[in-house]
Amino acid sequence: MNKSLLASTMTVAVASVLLSGCISLAPDYKRPAAPTAEAWPQGTAYKPTAEAAKAANEIGWRDFFADARLQKLIELSLANNRDLRVAALNIERARAQYQIQRADQFPTVRATAGETVSRTPADLAGGGDARISRQYNVSLGVASYELDFFGRVQSLKDAALQSYLASEEARRSAQIALVAEVANAYLSLAADQERLKLSQDTLASRQESFTLTQRTYELGAASALALRQAQSTVEGARGDVAAYTARVAQDQNALAVLIGGSVPADLLPPGLGGTATAVTELPAGVPSSVLQARPDILQAERRLQSASANIGAARAAFFPSITLTASAGTASASLDGLFKSGSGAWSFAPSINLPIFDMGRRQANLDVARADRDIALAQYDKAIQSAFREVADALAVRGTVDEELSARQAQVDAFAESLKLSEARFRGGVDSYLAVLDAQRSLYVAQLSLIGVRLSRQSNLVTLYKVLGGGLAERSS
Description:
The protein is an alpha+beta fold. The protein has 11 helices and 5 strands. The protein has 2 domains: 1-20 and 107-147 and 321-354, Single Sheet (Outer membrane efflux proteins (OEP)), CATH 2.20.200; 31-105 and 148-319 and 360-467, Outer membrane efflux proteins (OEP). The chain has helices spanning 3-19, 61-64, 68-80, 82-103, 122-125, 152-218, 224-259, 287-293, 295-316, 361-427, 433-467; strands spanning 109-120, 131-147, 321-332, 344-348, 351-353. Strands 1, 2, 3, 4 and 5 form a 5-stranded antiparallel beta sheet that branches. Helix 3 (68-80) packs across helix 6. The longest helix has 67 residues, at 152-218.
């Protein structure tokens, strides 16, 4: 192919790109006003928000979670969790879809080479004999390229870009949620292990009391009622041991699903006595900055922007579309003459498509695009409202959990002292064994409640880290 023909084809392609994308009919996007209050709730359930050098979204999970076992479990989950893997694959799919839409903005240049052989019958050939003719051609061309005067292709590309960015935010949101879920599962396992240990100790203690009561009964110093009451406490504790044994196993199974494999024995939590988090206070900041840092909010906004861009594409469908098809090359009846002087061939076939009547199809498509945008806006508002509530709920727990923990600890101490006094009064013959049993039950329930509040306190920090847009950055080595 000679250089002039190649240059002419490339000129058509370049000119097509320069002529396209003159107008965008997509509505101008402005971030909607947040449908929430400008400050977090105030009242007796809330403490004043603390100021700190770093917001939650700037604290990497390695810096937030201090427990080395928990750090290792989080590493395993980020590497092996199937839900997170699906989120990553969704990003790859969205990226490829965006690349497809972006490619539509540029002409597709194809090189073709071919041979055409035809036979003309004798009665049509004019010479009395059948004739076989051959034609060879080589060309470089642009096929069906749309000049994007009204921004239809650009709007579709923008919509695909926002969908891709939304999938990236979805992955970040899934990753933050996974980190928090692993931490909460780890803490739940630690709490249930403590409950199991408490129920085992309680069973051993009540078994001793039952044995002592049985001997006393055999000597005639205790009633049958006292014996059966002591036995009932033993059976109750035995049932709790079985129940908490099952719960510990279930907690381990849940943790195994999160990390994508069995939980190594050396990574099981030692109990709630340690501190899972290195940060004891998280600044709540102001709602606008906090909510904008959350990837699920950003994901909802990206979807809203994508829906807005689709309106531009639907509007552009009402206007004419211009399509270019052009090629340049050489053609000859013989193969050896394909590149000789004078064998150049070219074609240029612009076409215009002017919609006139389609039974309201284009208007319906525009109505659908607008409805999708309104749906995306409602989902964006709901995402902000849900996020606001999650933070407010976590702050309410944060503001009251320390007081509750102090009260539960004091209650346990009081019941422990009450049990000592009841046992002393029983041994002195002042009270019946029923008072001892009642004190034992009260202490056991209070101890279980204390474990629950300790779990709630640590889980609340994890929840705050998540709902405040906890960061994902790795700590620099």
